């Protein structure tokens, strides 16, 4: 059985860890999991190519993640960062860890030698053994930039997503997001096949705009999701009107989507309508999990739209709770017939 997961950073990594725990718990050895990772968060800093969401998935599943931060390495130090600051080298707001820097050095060196990002990611995963196949959404260089107000009233400028996210804590209004490089980008090798040949496609509670939404912008990926024979089931990142982690509400507001479990599902859109049954509805979702019981009303709202919806506890408080969510997503997928 092939399961394909489209993941961003912390939420996607935690969900996938629970999915693997569930699969090992039911002794389902003949299941393989492919994670298609978001690379829109990538940033070139101090000459290093940094891939936050790929590294967060790799470190989380490889047990090297900082449990406290959810990103970067356990037992981390920041001496290089301090020394760069002593030289007055900007930017000072990015948390560049020393152990993490080794990952960026290997990646940058391999990219410079001509290896594509997918080969680099495979090489890095050889050390971490995440238990999944981790594919970047594209081998092409892509960056999410955020449109914010400039000094002059009425003027705007673009800043890198990481500056908006880390330096500004998503606290300055975003007027939109631009995926720089997207027009020339193609999916990385294996990405389309992983969606086409999947038995189930899962959308974990990652940021629907700047993580999963970014993956969907790579030419060919949305089309592959709409065409796959696999049921596509998502997990709401919004519980009771608020994101549990991160700042998805600021991202949703930027694109005019309400911060609710229902609004996110409608944003993804139903793949097939309920009436007339099976007609193309233009979206990518077949199933959706919402939090019981704060969002149970979404079930009656979304089901008539063609999105099979169930309410289950969605707080990923520990690996057992997360495994239960993954199990519920797989059960929902199994109940969805083509
Ligand atoms: N997130 C922060 O809030 N502060 C940081 O200083 C920071 C540094 C960082 C370094 C490497 C890395 O892989 C991730 C890092 N993150 C940091 C998370 C990063 O901003 C991710 O893009 C977000 O978590 C969104 O997925």
Automatic annotation (TrEMBL):
Organism of this sequence: freshwater metagenome
Q: CDD domains, per this entry?
A: CofD_like
GO molecular function list: LPPG:FO 2-phospho-L-lactate transferase activity; magnesium ion binding
Q: What keywords were assigned to this record?
A: Magnesium, Transferase
Recorded hits in Pfam families, A to Z, give: CofD
The name this protein carries in UniProt is Unannotated protein
Instruction: Note the InterPro entries from the entry.
Output: CofD, CofD-like_dom_sf, FbiA/CofD
């Amino acid at each position: 059985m092939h399961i394909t997961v489209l993941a961003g950073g912390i939420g996607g990594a935690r969900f996938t860890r629970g999915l693997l725990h569930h699969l090992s718990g039911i002794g389902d050895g003949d299941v393989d999991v492919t994670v298609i990772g978001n690379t829109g968060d990538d940033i070139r800093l101090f000459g290093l190519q940094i891939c936050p969401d790929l590294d967060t998935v790799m470190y989380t599943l490889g047990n090297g993640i900082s449990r406290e931060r959810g990103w970067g390495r356990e037992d981390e130090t920041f001496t290089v960062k301090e020394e760069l600051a002593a030289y007055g080298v900007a930017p000072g707001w990015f948390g560049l860890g020393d152990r993490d820097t080794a990952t960026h050095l290997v990646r940058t060196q391999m990219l410079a030698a001509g290896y594509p990002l997918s080969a680099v990611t495979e090489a890095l995963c050889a050390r971490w053994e995440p238990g999944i196949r981790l594919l970047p959404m594209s081998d092409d260089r892509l960056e999410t930039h955020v449109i914010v107000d400039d000094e002059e009233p009425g003027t705007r400028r673009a800043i890198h997503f990481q500056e908006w996210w880390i330096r500004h804590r998503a606290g300055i209004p975003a007027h939109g997001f631009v995926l720089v490089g997207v027009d020339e980008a193609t999916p990385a090798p294996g990405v389309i096949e992983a969606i086409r040949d999947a038995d189930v496609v899962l959308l974990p509670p990652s940021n629907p705009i700047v993580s999963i939404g970014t993956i969907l912008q790579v030419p060919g990926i949305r089309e592959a999701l709409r065409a796959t024979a696999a049921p596509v089931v998502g997990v709401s990142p919004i519980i009771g009107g608020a994101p549990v982690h991160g700042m998805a509400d600021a991202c949703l507001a930027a694109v005019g989507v309400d911060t609710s479990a229902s609004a996110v599902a409608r944003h993804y859109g139903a793949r097939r309508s309920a009436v007339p049954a099976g007609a193309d509805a233009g979206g990518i979702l077949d199933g959706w999990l919402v939090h019981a019981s704060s969002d149970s009303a979404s079930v009656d709202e979304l089901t008539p739209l063609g999105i099979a919806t169930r309410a289950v506890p969605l707080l990923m408080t520990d690996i057992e709770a997360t495994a239960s969510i993954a199990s519920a997503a797989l059960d929902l997928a199994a109940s969805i017939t083509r």
